[in-house]
Amino acid sequence: MSDSAFRTMGQQAGRRSWAEPWKIKMVEPIFMTSREDREGAIVDAGFNTFLLRSEDVYIDLLTDSGTSAMSDRQWAGMMSGDEAYAGSRNFYHLEEAVRSVYGYRYLVPTHQGRGAEHLISQALISPGQIVPGNMYFTTTRMHQELAGGSFADVIVHEAHDPSDPSPFKGDVDLGKLESLIQREGAERIAYVSLAGTVNMAGGQPVSMANARALRELCDRYGIRVYLDATRMFENAYFIQQRESGYGDKSIRAIVHEFCGYTDGAWMSAKKDNLVNIGGWLAVNDPDLFDRLRNLVVIYEGLHTYGGMAGRDMEALAIGIGEGVEDDHVRTRVGQVQYLGQLLIDWGIPIVQPVGGHGVFLDARRFYPHIPQDQFPAQTLTAELYLDSGVRGMERGIVSAGRDPATGAHRYPALELTRLAIPRRVYTQAHMDVVAESVKAVYDARGATRGLKMVYEPRYLRFFQARFERLP
Ligand code: F0G
């Protein structure tokens, strides 16, 4: 049921709302600043929300990465860290948690997701190879390119249309993938890079049917499939809600089946696994495991800690168990849907359907008068901060970067401002404040001017680029 239908029902007798399966034990104060303070802060930050100090932010929706609140059980687990250099017992807990929830055989811990992306890209990509995937992610593609590969987008075309209502806009276009394989030859395909959910498309899920069919297609050509499992629990929730035959299955069972169609996964544990730092890589092939276990000691740390402290691995092992619980995922995604539905009800253009980890504002439809090379989504992100101290992130032309072959801007179809919701951190009242601020910025849209880039770093420019307001 949609949230608006839900609210209508609320006026009737017999209403039953969902609520978070926890209560709050500890709080952290946050402060509203003045508009004048925020003007100074955003100019100092070069109109880039990554360059703001978090103390200058009121409600921080920059990312859902590493920003979750841990549970009392996780904090208790931190106290039982076994800080041995080798063979920490917490590593074995983590290994067991990954095996039982995701089902992969071998585990390599890393300090966070991009550490895992680095290792798998180095291990599997030879220079000149192609890595097809369901839309790029910034750090994932960067590591694929640094290993000598080139990324090929094979996501369904609906993913590029922010108002297309399809339920599984993260699916791989199998026809597109098969023609790519036939055109280039299977030996030129390093592996398929599958993400569930798809961050840059707005947190859109992949269906189980698509994962199963992808497996069959890749088996015919002898190509492997590796999963970016960063937000796989949220993906599983959408399968449970939207795909026939899965309504009575647990998130855990759905995750297990889905991962079974893949050969391994890399993970930014800072998202679905409910920790502030951590990552992992897990595979089924013993030879690949052997290579990865050797590589990890060069870049991350010994193969039984990979850049994490023992206590971090313990919190992570517990976080995996909590993160896959149905009640948790339902209220986590439910909060995102609540914010999205408010904006939809007010006629504000956002990516639909609302995704799993955040609400994505469609900057093209906010600012049809600002051309893409004047950075509409960067502008919108700054305007929202100026209005209320709410911090989001650009996910458009700045994030897309430049084509390494031509050096020209990449012009992505989606020009979005992402409001990512940290897990177990904010309340419904915070969501109301955010929605009201987005509405104020939308109402003032006609007078808003674009930006020019005045500093551009070489890699992943969105993190550190600086801008000035156009006259
Ligand atoms: N894959 C996906 C889908 C991600 O969203 C991220 C990080 C990574 C890999 C890399 O993981 O940050 O632990 O090194 N996404 C963050 C975000 C930064 O805000 O969406 P990491």
Descriptive notes:
With 471 residues, the protein is an alpha/beta fold. The chain folds into 2 domains: 3-60 and 326-469, Alpha-Beta Complex (Aspartate Aminotransferase, domain 1); 72-323, Aspartate Aminotransferase, domain 2. The protein has 17 helices and 14 strands. The protein has helices at residues 3-10, 35-44, 72-78, 89-102, 113-124, 138-146, 174-184, 208-221, 232-242, 251-260, 286-299, 310-323, 326-345, 363-366, 376-388, 397-400, 428-443; strands spanning 59-60, 106-110, 130-133, 150-153, 192-195, 225-228, 264-268, 279-283, 358-362, 390-391, 393-395, 416-420, 451-455, 466-469. The chain has a 5-stranded mixed β-sheet, sandwiched between helices. Strands 9-12-11 form a 3-stranded antiparallel β-sheet. It has a two-stranded parallel sheet with strand order 1-10. α15 (376-388) packs across α17. The termini are far apart. The model has no long low-confidence stretch (mean pLDDT 96). Ligand F0G binds next to α5 and α6. Ligand F0G binds at residues 63, 65, 112-114, 137, 139-140, 195, 199, 228, 230, 268, 270, 279.
CATH architecture name of the largest domain: 3-Layer(aba) Sandwich
Poorly predicted runs: none
Annotation, overall tally of beta strands: 14
Query: Helix/strand-derived class?
Result: alpha/beta
Return Rg in Å.
Answer: 22 Å
Number of helices in the DSSP assignment:
17
What is the rounded distance between the termini?
A: 46 Å
What would the CATH topology of the largest domain be?
Answer: Aspartate Aminotransferase, domain 2
Q: Give a quick account of the main beta sheet: strands, pairing sense, barrel closure.
A: 5 strands, mixed
Strand-residue proportion: 5-15%
* CATH hierarchy class name of the largest domain: Alpha Beta
Bound molecules: ligand F0G
Order of strands in the sheet with the most strands? Answer: 2-8-7-6-5
> What is the approximate shape?
globular
Give the proportion of residues in helices: 40-55%
Average of the residue pLDDT scores: 96
The total number of structural domains is 2
CATH H-tier superfamily of the largest domain: Type I PLP-dependent aspartate aminotransferase-like (Major domain)
